[in-house]
UniProtKB/TrEMBL annotation:
The enzyme's E.C. designation: 2.7.7.7
Catalyses which reaction(s): DNA(n) + a 2'-deoxyribonucleoside 5'-triphosphate = DNA(n+1) + diphosphate
A single GO molecular function term of this UniProt record: DNA-directed DNA polymerase activity
Keyword terms, alphabetized: DNA replication, DNA-directed DNA polymerase, Nucleotidyltransferase, Transferase
Domain (Polymerase/histidinol phosphatase N-terminal) ranges: 1-68
Record-linked Gene3D superfamilies: 1.10.150.870, Metal-dependent hydrolases
Pfam families: DNA_pol3_alpha, DNA_pol3_finger, HHH_6, PHP
GO process annotations (BP): DNA replication
Protein name: DNA-directed DNA polymerase
Length: 1016
């Protein structure tokens, strides 16, 4: 009877999750159910699974609407019928083709509303009649259609509260007040479940309508085999030809990577090829290789990582640059005969080049077969409060207060309603979006499985997420972008362009384990370098005295939350520095994890221990693998693995306490850990960055600035360039490019850094200069570049016309005389055809620090001096950063410029870790506990006087701050007589703040990680 059920995937309309929908139907004894969400099939595969778990026969379709207008409801007779509707919706979503009002859908039943149906109905077309419309059937014009009618009892909500929630969703969708919501935008008040008996009783006088409804249901099914591989099967066309090509490419790469007589590598290639063939993954490897081949032909850099980087075949094909033999990578982590899905290849390109790769994939494999995974963007608390509050008509200031104080109890009845319904909306899908990197390449047209949508980024998406994709048999290709590769690529290009130096950075032998690089690494001198520049990572490198590739690989993984929160990161650091002061928990840990001192660091380590200590089967190991990669969503399967683990441990006679501790460590890895190959891929790129930073620091930092850095703001990379011997120069209209550029040691900041200058003007200036030569004066600049007075003033104040030798004050007056208040589009060339009058200006003196305040206003940081030069105090601290390692347990007084701070939750309240530079430009780190922050909070960017005690932990000093005070700048000399403005600009000095919202990590003493051998 239920031909028209909505879930909350009918965005901003339905109020029931799939789970709620099915469980309510089960409670009423309903045996068959039709899910028809509005213009989407997002929930159909979950719906099928949930129905079958509850012995309900699932049937699916779509309610097709044009905006708010209901056109018809389709009910698929079979799986092919779903594809028919998907094609119509895809044409509408992606190509703008109008939805047909009477569709030609042979494998669907089509149900029209009583308000809008065609005069001539096809055999598979019906009119849906609601219970409140039955009294209309006495009309002759409708009576004749009774034989073509079916019961229409839509399901949209379940309670009065949910009906109100539905109305709020409709108001949000239409961006109007609840009180202004038109009736036609809202469902009827009867769209909730009634028992089948009640509905049959309602329609008892119309047996034909009941019979038609039952026939429609009986003639439909949703037969679909979940888990069947649906990716493009073959690259060449057949399985045999795929294996033949893959084998040829693998052996060619084997010779290139290892030479002709490397027995161990040859044996591993043979072994992998055999398993790849047995699992039917040859096509998957070849498609990935094809994408890399195209990338290489374009001269792009890429990084191949993920579990697929464990593969020597991937290494030989050039997909990855990780040698599995060098790192003893665990073959079974990436491929084993229990595994049904191919290994993950996460492939990074520069953020500037990724779209070129995407265009190639879509063109090469066909737009009908390629799409991004979708993702549901859920309502989040702040956005919920704003959206619901607007529907209730709350003013902006009240919305601001409410969204910032979610726990506060308000007496106002309207606000209470907003909070009440806002809580109900949490976890509701709000809109569909594009997965950041996951692409599906299908064997069949994707519209067989889903309608496609076209988000603003211009690449089509499927209507379900990566979890559903995997469940129904699609494995995604992860095509990612990052700025680190852009920095490397741009540095190499800049070196060749400016200095004629060619660096083959793809040759990892020149950048891995290089002596001087390792010295930088052990000191944590890695700002600007991919993945190893954050304060936490630089501190870890120093604690480990990390001076080689293998330790860097481990460091890349132990920094991850799973290892850190379980106490294993701290224990790894201790054991690395004290290899003679610990015992292995158990002989298995020494045998399997000797390289990492018996500490589980990688996902492979967990599997090794589960198999060799816990005695689990390979199948259970695969369930653990999936849980660690965030893909295992079956809690019952994970619980069974846990039960099996403890049962097996008891059977082998392992100490119960040790087994509990080991499983605690295993659990901490779920969703927060790297496989070793992934860490190794990161380490290779980190070394490539570091090599360029060490030997070509100025070009490297210029490239970091142009790629908009990484962990830190632009100012920090500018500081690094200055510390490396670069002369930092403000933008100049005759020297600067859109991006920052370098001439010998002179670094001209790019026009893109001028916040108040439009991008098109910033790009036009160097283009115009290349075409018609340098600008001889400000007047010549005005003739050639369409700028208004405000933009011109920005150029003057930043010193972009300093080549003229005319003081800024005089240039400002001239600019006003020339342009006045006119806008660029109103400016006529004739204005300048006559010679410009010469004016005699009085000598206008400028304070030495006026330039610095101009720079802060325009760039957010000073260039012509340091922040320390702008302080009122001459005091620069009693201790410098370079001396901290010799100050263990001593109190120090320091003056620091705040670079960044990281929020960390603890059981004692919020604390922060700060990173600073001293007057010499050297970095140091601080810890600020909750009690200290209460009395001495951070007050934004700037310089602070710090008092604290030094703790040196394995060569890494941290100042635990007991007192701090922000130091005032001198008054802005440009506004010496304006009390309001003379301290205003210094508020633009920034800091980097990273917020962490998670449960507090336990302290080492709370964990009690064993350091001695367990006694059986």
């Amino acid at each position: 009877m239920y031909l028209n059920c909505h879930s909350y995937h009918s965005l901003r309309y339905g109020t029931l999750s799939i789970d709620d929908l099915v469980s309510q139907a089960f409670a009423l004894g309903i045996k068959e159910l039709v899910l028809t969400d509005i213009n989407t099939v997002t929930g159909i595969y979950e719906f099928k699974r949930k129905c079958e778990e509850n012995n309900i026969r699932p049937i699916v379709g779509v309610e097709v609407r044009n905006e708010s207008e209901l056109l018809y409801i389709t009910v698929a007779k079979d799986f092919a019928g779903l594809g028919e509707v998907n094609k119509i919706l895809t044409s509408y979503n992606c190509d703008g083709i109008e939805l047909p009002r009477q569709p030609d859908l042979k494998n669907n039943f089509v149900i029209y509303s009583l308000n809008c149906f065609p005069e001539e109905l096809e055999e598979n077309e019906f009119i849906g009649i609601r219970k409140e419309e039955l009294n209309l059937l006495i009309r002759p014009n409708l009576k004749k259609f009774i034989s073509k009618m079916v019961i229409l009892h839509p399901i949209t909500f379940s309670t009065k509260k949910e009906y109100n929630l539905h109305r709020i969703l409709r108001a949000i969708d239409n961006n109007i007040l609840l009180s202004m919501l038109p009736e036609n935008e809202v469902c009827t008040k009867g769209e909730y479940f009634e028992s089948p008996e009640t509905i049959l009783e309602t329609y008892r006088h119309y047996p034909q309508i009941i019979e038609n409804t039952q026939k429609v249901l009986a003639d439909c099914n949703f037969e679909f085999q979940a888990g069947t591989p649906r990716n493009k099967k073959h690259y060449t066309g057949t399985k045999a030809d795929d294996l033949k090509l893959l084998t040829r490419l693998a052996y060619a790469g084997l010779e290139r990577r290892y030479g002709r007589k490397h027995q161990r590598a040859t044996e591993r290639v043979e072994k992998e090829l055999k398993v790849i063939d047995e699992l039917n993954f040859s096509g998957y490897f070849l498609i990935t290789w094809d994408i890399i081949r195209y990338s290489n032909s374009m001269g792009f850099m890429h990084v191949g990582r993920g579990s697929g980087a464990n593969s020597i075949v991937a290494y030989c094909l050039g997909i990855t640059d990780i040698c599995p033999i060098e790192l003893d990578l665990y073959f079974e982590r990436f491929l084993n005969l229990n595994r049904k899905s191919p290994p993950d290849f996460d492939i990074d390109w520069s953020w500037q080049e990724r779209d070129v790769i995407l265009d190639y994939i879509f063109n090469r494999y066909g737009k009908d077969y390629v799409a991004f995974c979708g993702t549901n963007v859920e309502f989040k608390y702040r956005s919920i409060i704003r959206e619901v509050g607007k529907a209730f008509g709350l003013p902006k200031d009240e919305l601001d207060t409410l969204s910032k104080n979610p726990e506060r109890v308000f007496s106002d009845k309207v606000i209470q309603q907003v909070q009440k319904y806002g809580m109900l909306l949490q976890k509701f899908p709000n809109q569909r979006s594009m997965h950041s990197c996951g692409i599906i390449i299908s064997e069949e047209p994707l519209t067989n499985f889903t309608a496609l949508e076209m988000p603003p980024k211009g690449f089509p998406i499927v209507q379900w997420d990566m979890h559903v994709a995997e469940e129904i048999g699609f494995e995604k290709f992860d095509i990612l972008s990052q700025r680190g590769l852009g920095t490397i690529y741009d540095t190499v290009r800049l070196l060749e362009e400016k200095r004629g130096i060619k660096v083959n950075i793809k040759d990892t032998t020149i950048s891995k384990d290089e002596k001087l690089c390792n010295e930088y690494l052990s000191r944590g001198s890695t700002i600007g370098c991919f993945y190893i520049e954050s304060p936490a990572m630089r501190g870890l490198l120093r604690k480990l005295k990390c001076d080689n590739y293998k330790v860097l690989v481990a460091a890349s993984s132990i920094i991850r939350p799973g290892v850190a929160q379980s106490g294993m990161m701290t224990e790894y650091v201790f054991r690395h520095n004290n290899p003679d002061k610990f015992e292995y928990f158990h002989p298995v840990f020494e045998q399997q994890l000797g390289e990492t001192y018996g500490i589980m660091v990688y996902q492979e380590d967990v599997i090794k221990i589960a198999l060799h200590y816990g005695g689990l089967s390979a199948a259970d190991g695969d369930i653990l693998r999936r849980a660690m990669s965030g893909k295992g969503r079956s809690l019952s399967a994970l619980q069974k693995v846990k039960d099996d683990f403890f049962a097996s441990c008891r059977q082998q006679g392992h100490p119960e306490e040790l087994s509990k501790e080991i499983y605690r460590q295993i659990e901490s890895f779920a969703g927060y850990s790297f496989c070793k190959a992934h860490s190794a891929s990161y380490a290779v790129e980190s070394y490539q960055s570091l090599y360029l930073k060490v030997y070509y620091p100025l070009e490297f930092m210029v490239s970091a600035i142009n790629n908009m850095g990484g962990f830190y703001r632009t100012e920090v990379y500018v500081h690094e360039a200055k510390m490396s011997g670069g002369k930092i120069l403000n933008p100049c209209v005759n020297k600067s490019e859109y991006e920052t550029t370098i001439f010998d040691n002179d670094i001209y900041l790019g026009l893109m850094l001028l916040e108040n200058v439009e991008t098109k003007i910033a790009r036009l200036i160097p283009e115009e200069r290349r075409k018609n030569g340098e600008f001889r004066s400000m007047e010549a600049f005005i003739r050639r570049i369409p700028v208004g007075i405000e933009t011109l003033q920005t150029f003057i104040l930043i010193g972009a016309f300093r080549f003229t030798g005319v003081p800024k004050n005089e240039l400002l007056i001239r600019a006003r005389l020339l342009l006045g208040e006119c806008k660029p589009q109103d400016k006529l060339q004739t204005l300048f055809e006559e010679p410009i009058k010469e004016f005699k200006f009085p000598e206008l003196k400028r304070n030495i620090f006026e330039d610095a305040f101009d720079e802060i206003e325009i760039l957010s940081f000073p260039v012509s001096c340091t922040p320390f030069d702008l302080l009122r105090t001459k005091y620069r601290g009693s201790t410098m950063a370079k001396d901290l390692t010799s100050c263990h347990k001593k109190q120090v007084k320091m003056l620091g410029y705040l670079i960044s701070r990281k929020h960390v939750p603890t059981n004692r309240g919020t604390m922060f870790f700060g990173t600073w530079i001293d007057v010499n430009g050297d970095y140091f780190d601080t810890a600020h506990f909750a009690d200290c922050l209460e009395k001495y909070p951070f007050q934004g960017g700037g310089c602070y006087l710090l008092l604290g005690n030094v703790e040196v932990n394995f060569n890494f000093p941290t100042v635990t701050v007991s007192k701090m005070a922000k130091m005032p700048f001198i008054a802005d000399p440009r506004y010496y007589h304006d009390e309001e403005k003379k301290y205003e600009v210094q508020q633009r000095i920034k800091e980097d703040v990273s917020m962490t919202f998670r449960a507090p990590y336990p302290q080492q003493h709370e964990i009690g990680l064993p350091r001695h051998k367990a006694i059986s």
